[in-house]
Specification:
The protein is built from 14 helices and eight strands. It is mainly alpha-helical. The chain has four domains: 50 residues, no CATH class; 90 residues, Helicase, Ruva Protein, domain 3; 83 residues, Arc Repressor Mutant, subunit A; 55 residues, no CATH class. The strands form three sheets. The chain has a three-stranded antiparallel beta sheet with strand order 3-5-4. The protein has a three-stranded parallel beta sheet with strand order 6-7-8, with helices on one face. β7, α14 and β8 form a beta-alpha-beta unit. α5 packs across α6, α7 runs parallel beside α9 and α10 packs across α13. The longest helix has 14 residues. It is globular and about 60 Å long. InterPro entries: Apaf_helical (IPR042197), Disease_R_plants (IPR044974), NB-ARC (IPR002182), P-loop_NTPase (IPR027417), WH_DNA-bd_sf (IPR036390), WHD_ROQ1-like (IPR058192). Keywords: Leucine-rich repeat.
Length: 297
């Protein structure tokens, strides 16, 4: 691909770049320097990724939605059967929209959550939680903190099986382009006796309805990066889920694997001592998901 880019003018778009090496793996800086007229567009949540890139850079910060656009997006997800909020929910709806700070993902997720709640009291409780906030990273005036607070409200409202499937997807099944819906259902069907394939499909459909995940036309399940971050943060920090899922070797507790462990990614590139330490503990845990990353030469 680099050879092709060297010989032609191009416009290349790289979405959600997390590391500068992701850019260099596709197009080196000297390609852009010598290939005049070519354009590289990068979207990222970390300015440091492109800050030191040795070519002329134009930075565009994506602003939050204004009041009208925010209300329109929120209404689209909270009132799927109509174009406007019911009269009794208009004022409380506007208050909720203001509390979302113009963040599109929060408007979408919270709108989807409240879409199934028609009682004024349910909307008032959601607003109270927004104003109260949660002890997550950041402070209350920070938009990232506000987003996490809103997403956490939607997570807390999920049923137990919906929470567990969402966390499984965030920890194990949304890397490398996502995972097929059928694969997730099969894993969950085999997870415990009494879980039918139809039940697993219903849980997935509920997560889609709540805008916690999305299923592409080809059946691949994907999760927004910030929702994935939230899911993994919950597993790392909340007592109920801590030590239940391990997706990299650095997460293995110093005291070893406990009986709480439900899923793990075992990377055969890790040090032998680490791999033996992990495998030794697998026999006494409640393991239901084991993913082995084996690199073949």
């Amino acid at each position: 691909m680099k050879q092709v880019l060297m010989s032609k003018k191009f416009m290349l778009v790289l979405d959600d770049v997390k590391d500068k090496n992701q850019i260099n793996d596709v197009v080196l800086s000297d390609v852009l320097h010598f290939n005049k007229g070519s354009i590289l567009i990068v979207t990222t949540r970390n300015w440091e990724v492109v800050k030191s890139y040795p070519t002329k850079i134009h930075k565009f910060d994506i602003e939050e939605l204004d009041k009208d656009a925010s209300l329109k997006l929120f209404t689209a997800y909270s009132c799927r059967d109509g174009d406007e909020l019911p009269k009794e929910l208009i004022e409380i709806g506007k208050e909720i929209v203001r509390s979302c700070n113009g963040l599109p993902l929060s408007l979408k997720v919270l709108g989807s959550f409240l879409g199934g709640q028609k009682r004024l009291r349910c909307w008032e409780r959601a607003l109270q939680k927004l104003r109260r906030g949660r002890p997550l990273d950041g402070d209350e005036i920070d938009s990232e903190y506000k987003l996490w607070t809103i997403l956490k409200i939607s997570f807390d409202a999920l049923k137990v099986e919906e929470k567990n499937m969402f966390l499984d997807i965030c920890c194990f099944f949304c890397n490398n382009g996502g995972t097929m819906k059928g694969t997730i259902i099969q894993i969950w069907t085999n997870k415990q006796s009494g879980v039918e394939e139809q039940d697993g499909s219903i849980v997935l459909d509920m997560l889609v309805h709540q805008s916690m995940i999305k299923i592409e036309k080809d059946g691949v399940i994907k999760v927004h990066d910030q929702l994935q971050d939230m899911g993994r943060k919950i597993v790392e920090e909340e007592k109920e889920y801590k030590d239940t899922r391990i997706w990299n070797a650095n997460m293995v507790p110093m005291h070893g694997i406990t009986s709480k462990l439900e899923g793990i990614i075992l990377d055969y590139n890790m040090k032998d001592i680490s791999r033996r330490f992990i495998i030794k503990g697998l026999h006494f845990c409640s393991l239901r998901i084991l993913i082995c990353n084996i690199v073949t030469k």
